[in-house]
Design a protein that fits this description.
This protein is α+β, with helices and mostly antiparallel strands. It is built from 9 helices and 6 strands, in the order βββααααββαααααβ. The protein starts with a strand and ends in a 7-residue tail after the last strand.
Length: 209
């Protein structure tokens, strides 16, 4: 029997008779009733329980804009050099998937793939470079999409599904949007808890082996 990952919570089995079966993972019916952003937020909450508001906003930003926050446009050799340097100083947290679906067609590719040999340095650098050079959506459309996703986040905070202080989060988000939607760093707590080392790439640029 062969297993193939189809997305956030679907798996495809081929049994010996050639029949195809679609199964749902442990996330259950609650996630089926949600939109993509809501599902991603709750998966992120369960996988990274120490996440702060900055980490959720970073997730939503990457889900909307990908890695297009780089002011410069580095070449593939420059990207490769950055990857090599970061890999030398990285610590892998086994709770983090090697390839993590963050929605919007984007995935976070852990640098651990390079260490384990599941992806070459050039493959990751090329996928990242191609993703950075994707044509951006019309800015107002992307901004509207981000605001809608941020509202989903605030609803979860209000309902207690994401354990953060609502008033503090609303104030922070208001100031964040007023100053312009922009990239944001992971929180200190998140960095210390999960040691994130990844690149955001569009899933269409991942090569299969």
């Amino acid at each position: 029997m062969k297993l193939r990952f189809l997305g956030m919570f679907h798996f495809h089995f081929n049994d010996s008779s050639g029949c195809s079966i679609i199964l749902l993972s442990r996330f259950g019916e609650e996630l089926i009733r949600m939109n993509e952003t809501q599902t991603i937020l709750l998966i992120h909450r369960d996988r990274y329980p120490s996440s702060q508001l900055e980490d959720y906003l970073k997730l939503l930003y990457q889900n909307t804009y990908g890695p297009r926050h780089f002011s410069a446009n580095p070449s593939i050799p420059e990207i490769s050099a950055y990857l090599e340097e970061e890999l030398r100083n990285s610590i892998y947290d086994p709770r983090t998937p090697l390839i993590e679906d963050i929605g919007g067609g984007f995935v976070r590719v852990s640098l651990e793939n390079l260490r384990q040999g599941t992806m070459s340095l050039r493959e990751l650098a090329l996928a990242f470079w191609k993703t950075m050079n994707l044509e951006a959506d019309e800015p107002r459309v992307s901004e509207g999409s981000f605001r809608e996703k941020a509202e989903d986040l605030l609803v979860f905070i209000h309902d207690g599904k994401i354990p953060l202080k609502e008033e503090t989060c609303r104030q922070f988000l208001h100031e964040y949007v007023q100053e312009g939607i922009r990239p944001i760093h992971h929180s200190r707590i998140y960095n210390e808890s999960y040691h994130p080392h990844y690149r955001v790439v569009h899933q269409t640029f991942l090569t299969s082996r």
